[in-house]
Specification:
284 residues, alpha+beta, Aminoglycoside 3'-phosphotransferase, Chain: A, domain 2, 2 domains, AGP_Transferase, Kinase-like_dom_sf, Aminoglycoside phosphotransferase domain-containing protein
Length: 284
């Protein structure tokens, strides 16, 4: 179940099963159905690591790429139910649910090579220009909603009949705008095309939008259909490795510009032009 936790099954004499979930690094809050937990490396806990003792959920992680069409359909119908339930529980703030005294690792941090810092800075400047267009098709509200931080598919537990038995790995969950929270989960994205800079949608994403529309929720369908802008903006420039690989960095960044309707030029051409503009502005 991911690489952030160690799991141990505890079986009692009466057949009841618990799951000991030991955090490999750090955790922010316990999930539901918790019997005991420790957060923050409590010095009074002899084990010395964060842990959660929780009821074990039946099921296994969903393998979305291998699921058959009828199995995907069943999962999407249930995910629509989950979205409709989450919509009933808005928050009045945006961002993290907790405050921590830890600085997250950054791929463009102090020890990053010069070229990576330059690329990141230029991309950041460009993203500032698209912020006004980010939610132009959606009316802003003062309500925000939970969004799963790692919705690539294996966060969903299913049984053999593809009934969802649970959704796990909420450690880094946060609240977001409705447009972001109800856009399609990344497990439905055409990932290869996404990293190549394409703005295409997958058949699963289009079907997910249709499900909402069939349920009389055209508003949620539009969040799915318009989701690529907000996804590309907040996805940033991919995982940390994307900063080290300029080809991946360039493809993701140009995909962001393409999604917002900017001039479709090669990364090297755009970068040279932006550096010249920055130099001219500095000397003017």
């Amino acid at each position: 179940m991911g690489n952030q936790n160690c799991h141990a099954e505890i079986i009692f004499d009466d057949g009841v099963k618990w799951l000991a979930r030991l955090r490999l690094a750090w955790t922010i809050s316990p999930p539901a159905l918790v019997f005991d937990w420790s957060c923050g490396l409590d010095p009074t806990i002899a084990i010395g690591v964060d842990y959660i003792l929780q009821a074990k959920l039946d099921g296994k992680p969903l393998d979305w790429p291998s699921a058959r069409p009828e199995q995907r359909e069943k999962i999407m119908q249930q995910l629509a139910d989950v979205c409709l339930e989450l919509e009933k529980h808005p928050f009045d703030f945006i961002g993290s649910l907790v405050t921590v005294d830890r600085n997250p690792a950054s791929p463009n941090g102090h020890n990053s090579p010069y070229d990576i810092k330059v690329n990141t800075y230029l991309a950041h400047r460009s993203r500032l220009h698209v912020m006004e267009a980010l939610f132009e098709s959606h009316k802003p509200t003062d309500q925000f909603f939970l969004i799963h931080p790692d919705d690539k598919g294996d966060h969903i537990l299913v049984n053999d009949a593809f009934d969802i038995t649970g959704i796990i790995d909420w450690e880094w969950t946060r609240t977001a705008s409705k447009a972001e929270a109800f856009s399609s989960p990344c497990m439905m994205w055409p990932v290869g095309k996404f990293y190549d800079g394409s703005k295409d949608f997958s058949p699963a994403e289009r079907r997910f939008a249709d499900i909402f529309r069939q349920r009389g929720r055209a508003d949620l369908a539009r969040y799915v259909e318009d989701g690529r802008k907000v996804q590309r903006f907040f996805f940033g420039l991919g995982t940390e490795g994307a900063y080290d690989d300029e080809n991946t960095f360039a493809a993701l960044f140009m995909g962001l510009r393409r999604t917002f309707g900017f001039e479709d030029v090669e990364w090297a051409v755009w970068k040279k032009r932006e550096l010249e503009r920055a130099r001219d502005a500095r000397h003017s």
